[in-house]
Amino acid sequence: MHIPDGFIDGKTALAAAALSAAGVSVALRQVQRELPPRKTPLLGLTAAFLFAAQMVNFPVAGGTSGHLVGGALAAALLGPSAAVVVVTTVLIVQCFLFADGGVMALGANIFNMAIVNSIGGYAIYRGVCRVLPGIRGQVAAMAFAGWCATVLASISCAGQLALSGTVPWSAAFPAMAGTHMLIGVGEGLISALVFLAILRTRPDMIAGTAEPGQPRRRGELLRYGLLVTLGVAVFVAPFACPWPDGLERVAARLGFEHRTAPSLFPAPAPDYRTPGIHWAVGATAIAGAAGSLIVFALALLLGRLLVPKRAAAISGDLKGL
Amino acid sequence: MSDAIQITNLHYRYHDGTVALAGVNLRVAAGECVGLLGPNGSGKSTLLLHLNGILPDKPGGGGAVKIMGETVGPQNLEKIRRQVGLVFQDPDDQLFCPLAGEDVAFGPQQLGLSETEIAARVRGALAQVGLAGFGRRATHHLSHGEKRRLCLAGVLACDPHILALDEPTSDLDPRGRREFKALLRQIPATKLMATHDLELVVEMCSRVVVLDRGSVVADGPARELLNNEELMLAHGLERPHILRHLHPH
Amino acid sequence: MRRLPAALKLGVALALIAGTALAPPGWTGWFAGVAAVLALAILSSRIPLLFLLKQLLLLSPFVLGVALVNALQPAGRAQWMIVAARSALCLLTVVLVSNTTPLSDILRVLRRARVPALLITTIALMHRYLFVLAEEAERMRRARLSRTFHRGRRLRWQTLATVVGQLFVRASERAERIYDAMCARGWQ
After folding, report:
1. CATH of A10-210, one of 1.10.1760.20, 3.40.630.10, 1.10.150.20, 1.10.3080.10
2. Interface pTM (ipTM) of the complex?
3. Would you call A70 an interface residue with chain C, using a CB distance cutoff of 8 Å?
């Protein structure tokens, strides 16, 4: 999901960069406040871990393989702010050293994969943990959070592509969200398996379980929530509303009108010219809603499968972790 | 002659409760080279980590460690760490900077030296360990022997009075071992070496301390203890081959 | 090319990328100019061409995706080519700079640009231990597979997940030892 240069335009890149810069500085400040100095190298090492883990091939079928992205996993292991810092580091290194993801698009990539993916994944993980108790609950929560995080990040990405006019929303949303609903299954599954492996051997290393009830944590999540909401408003909302001239309206509202330079695409909603494609958006939305329910059920099943009854019973002791 | 290191009745437990050190008493005079021997799990590394205050990491250990006459405590850690250079067991733990020169410069930077002084120390330390010109080399691409020498350089750049080495020659090929041994010989600092390399001990150490299950079971002249086959075997060691063939002259 | 100061290379690269990504499609002169500059830089840096071409493949998912969508549109092909050209030029610029500039220099520039120290340290540590962990992962994977006698995919997944989980545990433990090593040399 690393957007290369040339796929998003100036205003989108700028908006995303602003949101990302805000998010990352919030994260850095939070980490400095709450991370014990002993754990400072852990950030860099977790970033290296994510990168190394992303290279492990989980065989799917006939030569294809799944890979871990790990934003939600990092958040469950280290906490939301640390995860933002860690994934941002991974993205920066991937961008500059491995040319994976564009330089201008770095803001957008960080917003999608470090903020939406990690924070969204964390929020869902914590939310589900509260509803489902014990180790089984944690595993199911991790699986579901991994899936949701992937899909949410892909929607944000689609929004950015559409706002830039590179690809119309009616194509970007079904394509990105659709494919990532499938990819997300792998992500959720791998995240849950890895999470369980760590939980079994070293449950003390799972730090992302500070109760959201704590005022500090709540304030932290509120700030991120604000950022993500802004992002949604900028990148997704214009398209979620069926305005034929939605793009132009948003551009006018933001004050970004291309007055001097001719725009890349002639009309704001070229999708209406190609018959048969605009239904894809509706279909994808329905698939997403249904998919979430299905994946949630699957996640519950996974929890049951992976955690035998005996271990689930002992989980009462570990719940406090 | 004053003691460089004085350890009195040192106790330490791991986080899971296992006893790591059960009342260790040890003195090392200034300029001495002492070998710390013992089977795996005897507490050698744990003991070394007490020398510069990394351990105890929680209060209530018991016992005292004195470096150059000063008791090691939270109030003087900075000073102690300037005097004790600890070379870790795994070079990849110690060499945390991407470039070799940066890593050697780390210590002097923490000491607050000027840019020129830092550069001079880095050059000097690299030259001392035979890695002159390696400043811009990536740490990851060095051979194991080069990494071990780089660890030593990073510690020497701080000019410590005492060198504590944890398995300094393990995983080295014979040439690497010879080179490292030659290096160590040239360093006048007090040395305490935890090692399984019995030949290194024979060639370099005047005294040997044997640790087993957290207690000192023997402390005396190197040759005498190492020749005591019964003692060696009883504590997971053996009599070094080199002594079997040496003529007493 | 390698000997140019990092700040200069980064600054020029940033300008080129920004310009290329934002320039309107009509400015063919700009694109041609950038291509010429890149060609010169490639020659002077002596990076093998095959390597550069392989890096371009990274673009493929997005380029193909956009190509597919635009194929269904009237003016599609021209727009697709413009997007592809932009991203190719930008990518080559990044590849050139990253292969002729050590990361330490780039980080020094970032430090001067007042990027927070914690982020810079994290990037440096990640870069240092990337390969260490990758090798560790590979060794563990090989060791595990040597003791896997069944062909089942489910077992493969379990094994790999355990390896990845172990990798995190080892990375965490190593992080603590690194902290000790930093303290041992005076880190506050």
Report:
1. 1.10.1760.20
2. 0.90
3. no
